[in-house]
């Protein structure tokens, strides 16, 4: 049977798979009412320079989704076809060198950070070089993104809200589609920078995030806790403790080894040893142009790799 030349007679039966990481969808259907099934796989091409220029064209239509301090998020439709799915565009302006570094492709290295390395190298770097948290304080003080808050522990009149409370907000990377669910639990306490600061005293906070965050997501979206990936980044993008909630069928950046630590594992580790994260050696990846890499290099802990050009050895 000759393959069909167009989709005029295609009947969709069901969606087989929607891969949010690869931007690919597979569907089952048939042509011309014939019983033989057909599988159709559609995948978006990667951006090239011309497509970026089209997206950024002056004729592009923009719909603002968020504005908080230096961060803005838009939906945008290129001028050449208003019927195609809109793209998501985030703008950081004015951007710092740390913002530029975050989105720059660089060689990666593994760090095995001991307690001593954290105290003498990493912590001074954090204190010297952290990004501004004004956008986050705007959220905690209800000055920005109030309408985007999906859950607030204060709504339940918790007596210990200041110590164990948090806000549940959509991450900037979430498109809004349920199968790409991505929420952040941002704690209200302001003295926990990262995983390294967690002790046995923070177990009520961590369990509150795990249980109430999961319950809120189930109430809002019908997604069970067993379908959620709940984790913490180390190193994080910003140094105010927060927890990531993503749908298990979605594969966003930052869920790999060397970045993500499951919240349930964190709780179990602290229950076994109250100061586990002060004493543990933590592995993570670091970019070559990161100022923290330079500090490790100065101490002789890391060194830049000399990549061999295999084409010269052929």
From TrEMBL:
Q: Which InterPro entries match?
A: DcpS/DCS2, HIT-like_sf, Scavenger_mRNA_decap_enz_N
Q: Where in the cell is it found?
A: Nucleus
Record key words, sorted = Hydrolase, mRNA processing, Nucleus
Active-site residues annotated for this sequence = 242
Per the UniProt record, which EC number(s) apply here?
3.6.1.59
Q: Could you give a single Gene Ontology term from the biological process aspect?
A: mRNA processing
Q: Name one GO molecular function term.
A: 5'-(N(7)-methyl 5'-triphosphoguanosine)-[mRNA] diphosphatase activity
SUPFAM superfamilies annotated for this entry? Answer: HIT-like, mRNA decapping enzyme DcpS N-terminal domain
**Catalytic activity field:** a 5'-end (N(7)-methyl 5'-triphosphoguanosine)-ribonucleoside in mRNA + H2O = N(7)-methyl-GMP + a 5'-end diphospho-ribonucleoside in mRNA + 2 H(+)
Query: Where along the sequence do coiled-coil regions lie?
Result: none
Q: Which GO terms describe its cellular component?
A: nucleus; P-body
Q: Where does substrate bind?
A: 135, 145, 171, 173, 233-244
First-tier enzyme category under EC = hydrolase
Task: Indicate yes or no for the key word Lipid metabolism.
Answer: no
Assigned protein family? Belongs to the HIT family.
- What PANTHER family would the database entry show? HISTIDINE TRIAD HIT PROTEIN MEMBER, M7GPPPX DIPHOSPHATASE
Role this protein plays: Decapping scavenger enzyme that catalyzes the cleavage of a residual cap structure following the degradation of mRNAs by the 3'->5' exosome-mediated mRNA decay pathway.
Entry protein name: m7GpppX diphosphatase
Instruction: Supply the source organism for this entry.
Output: Aphis craccivora (Cowpea aphid)
């Amino acid at each position: 049977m000759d393959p069909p030349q167009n989709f005029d007679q295609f009947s969709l039966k069901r969606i087989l798979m929607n891969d949010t990481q690869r931007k690919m969808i597979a569907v089952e259907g048939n042509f011309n009412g014939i019983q033989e099934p057909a599988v159709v796989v559609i995948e978006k091409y990667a951006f090239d320079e011309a497509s970026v220029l089209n997206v950024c064209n002056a004729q592009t239509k923009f719909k603002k989704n968020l504005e908080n301090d230096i961060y803005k998020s838009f939906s945008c439709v290129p001028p050449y076809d208003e019927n195609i799915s809109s793209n998501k565009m985030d703008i950081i302006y004015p951007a710092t060198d740390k913002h530029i570094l975050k989105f720059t492709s660089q060689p990666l290295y593994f760090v095995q950070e001991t307690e001593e390395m954290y105290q003498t190298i990493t912590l001074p770097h954090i204190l010297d070089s952290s990004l501004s948290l004004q956008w986050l304080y705007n959220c905690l003080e209800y000055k920005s993104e109030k309408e985007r808050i999906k859950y607030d522990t204060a709504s339940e009149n918790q007596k210990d809200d200041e110590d164990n409370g948090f806000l549940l907000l959509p991450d900037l990377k979430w498109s809004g589609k349920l199968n790409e669910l991505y929420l952040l639990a941002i704690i209200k306490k302001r003295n926990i920078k990262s995983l390294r600061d967690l002790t046995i005293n923070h177990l009520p906070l961590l369990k509150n995030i795990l249980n109430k965050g999961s319950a809120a997501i189930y109430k809002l979206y019908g997604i069970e806790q067993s379908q959620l990936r709940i984790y913490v980044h180390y190193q994080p993008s910003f140094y105010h403790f927060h927890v990531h909630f993503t749908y298990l069928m979605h594969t966003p950046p930052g869920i790999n080894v060397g970045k993500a630590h499951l919240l349930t594992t964190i709780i179990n580790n602290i229950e076994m040893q109250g100061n586990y994260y002060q004493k543990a050696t933590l592995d993570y990846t670091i970019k070559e142009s990161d100022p923290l890499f330079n500090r490790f290099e100065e101490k002789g802990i890391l060194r830049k790799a000399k990549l061999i050009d295999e084409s010269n050895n052929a």
